[in-house]
Amino acid sequence: MRILIATDAWSPQVNGVVRTLKTTIDHLRRLGEEVEVIEPGAFRTIPCPTYPEIRLSWRPYRSVLARIRRFDPDVVHVATEGPLGLAARRAALRLGISLTSAYHTRFPEYVKARFRIPLAWTYAYLRWFHGAARATLVPTRVVREDLQARGLRNLEIWSRGVDTEIFHPRPGQRLDGEPPVFLYVGRVAVEKNVDAFMQLDLPGTKWVVGEGPELARIQRQYPQARYLGVLTQERLAEVYSGADVFVFPSRTDTFGLVLIEALACGCPVAAYPVTGPLDVIGDAPAGVLHEDLRTACVEALRIPRHNAVAHARRFTWERATEQFLQQLRQAVDEDLSLPAATSR
What we know:
Elements: E1 2-6, H1 16-30, E2 34-38, E3 45-48, E4 51-57, H2 61-71, E5 75-78, H3 83-95, E6 98-102, H4 107-115, H5 119-131, E7 135-138, H6 141-149, E8 155-157, E9 181-185, H7 194-198, E10 205-209, H8 215-221, E11 226-229, H9 233-242, E12 245-248, H10 257-264, E13 269-271, H11 277-280, E14 287-289, H12 293-300, H13 305-312, H14 317-336
Parallel strand pairs: 1-2, 1-5, 5-6, 6-7, 7-8, 9-10, 9-12, 10-11, 12-13, 13-14
Antiparallel strand pairs: 3-4
């Protein structure tokens, strides 16, 4: 199958969306699928307001249309709701090509946190945007239920995986500082709720891995913490292995790929009982979910590291890629079964 993926999230961005797409594309190609990627590197871009590290493509439609015509895909998968996603959506509908989409992040909540735009407005946009897709792929059942309550339809599960060849316990690793070591990994941005972690009165040492628009402020406000910036995956696995508890303060993530990476390295999780942690951890003895994040952190210290590793093995990229491919094949089959007059 010829698959075209359009995404506004790509290197040099370092986040779960980019990692998910790149890993999935790698697995698709191993399975013999032909994959073309349309990403911001091929376009003139402008910085995203309040988040200049993210570049937004400027007026990409004509170029996107030409590239889709040239590749002639069986299906167009729109991974993000930004300028490239919009352009690919429009082109696929114009050309009558099967269209699927994905919901990776809580876009309305992020927009509200940054620009104070009401949730109702952004969810209306999402209903319009994803309403054109044969299927919209979401990472968890909780996300699917949330979006259904907001009026979105044709939602299908596309889970996530972890590369256990990279993310596995590294015996003897230990992060410097007074124990216990509490670790945060992710974007340092307002929607990640990093302050909730930094403000906790915890024993030991706090470590932060990642970059983002709030990093300079966080470093000034909490100088006692240790900061490592962006790391390679190999180094990140060492850091997970050297921490006692992985703290996930976000209330807005749809999945949280870092959760299963930490678990795979034997690091128990402390988080709020919200979307993402509820699906990944649930009631498994691999982490603690509690509305009092400090309580979760302290209780997670008692979790055996082998519990975390065992739980992470439930999540594989092979299974996740098969879910993705199955939904795309079904979209193509459904469109082929339509009479020509009613086909998209």
